Amino acid sequence: MMEWAWDGYAKYAWGDNEVKPVSKLPHRSSVFGGGKFGTLATVCLSVRVVSLLTVNPLYDQHIILLEMLLDFIMQMPAVHQCGATIVDSLDTLYIMGLQSRFEKATEWVQTSLDLSRAGSTLSVFETTIRYIGGLLSAYALSNNQMFVEKAVAIADLLLPAFNTPTGIPYGYLDVIRKTGKSASWATGGSSILSEFGTLHMEFEYLSYVTKNPIYYEKVINSISLIAPTKLHTQYHSLVLVPLIPSPLYLFLHVCW
């Protein structure tokens, strides 16, 4: 199954983030970088929904034209390929003994992986678990120092996301402007617990292998803000952190 899935991706979408199994076209999701046409895809979906709800043939004509345009665009070479599937699959290829495929993926990472040219907004969480995690897993298995160097480059790219009043990183980072933002539905500068609360494994291991404490220091600050305080421990108080804690909650939590 892995060989079949990998070979299909390599044949139809090599270097792009993912492959669409039905259309056999590359999927360039913007949260992984390299995607500039997510809005057009959203428009296509919206028009299709309206068409189904209203049974209006006018919308059917529009959706056909929009989808033709989207398919044409998606067959064009990417502005910059970010290869999410390649990086995310490195450890699996190695563990399964698919050596020739692993070597091909390694060569692509060495020569082509550069998220500073992604040209879009990156999800800090997705970039951490898929790119930094994928690269460090490959390093732990193969001992190839190149993977660490690539992981450092990506981690350094994400560091501006931690420049917030609380130190908890923004959910998204514009790699061109080096500015961050929260998810559109997380109001008031709130952060998503399952995202910022799970970055420490990759960042801490990166500090371990590079002997550079900056990555560990960035993520341990986030964890310390949601950890039980001395007062909680003294009174055996149970700490239930909200799924999307706000800066005000974090301030009150630390003060208490």
From TrEMBL:
Example GO biological process: carbohydrate metabolic process
Copy the pathway line from the protein's UniProt record.
Answer: Protein modification; protein glycosylation
Q: What keywords would UniProt list here?
A: Disulfide bond, Hydrolase
Family classification: Belongs to the glycosyl hydrolase 47 family.
Q: Which domain of life is it from?
A: Eukaryota
One MF term in the entry's GO annotations: mannosyl-oligosaccharide 1,2-alpha-mannosidase activity
A GO CC term attached to the entry: Golgi membrane
Q: Does the keyword Chaperone apply?
A: no
The answer to keyword Disulfide bond applying to this record is yes
PANTHER family membership: MANNOSYL-OLIGOSACCHARIDE ALPHA-1,2-MANNOSIDASE IA-RELATED (PTHR11742:SF6), MANNOSYL-OLIGOSACCHARIDE ALPHA-1,2-MANNOSIDASE-RELATED (PTHR11742)
The protein here is known as: Alpha-1,2-Mannosidase
Write down the required cofactor(s): Ca(2+)
Q: Which InterPro entries match?
A: 6hp_glycosidase-like_sf, Glyco_hydro_47, Glycosyl_Hydrolase_47, Seven-hairpin_glycosidases
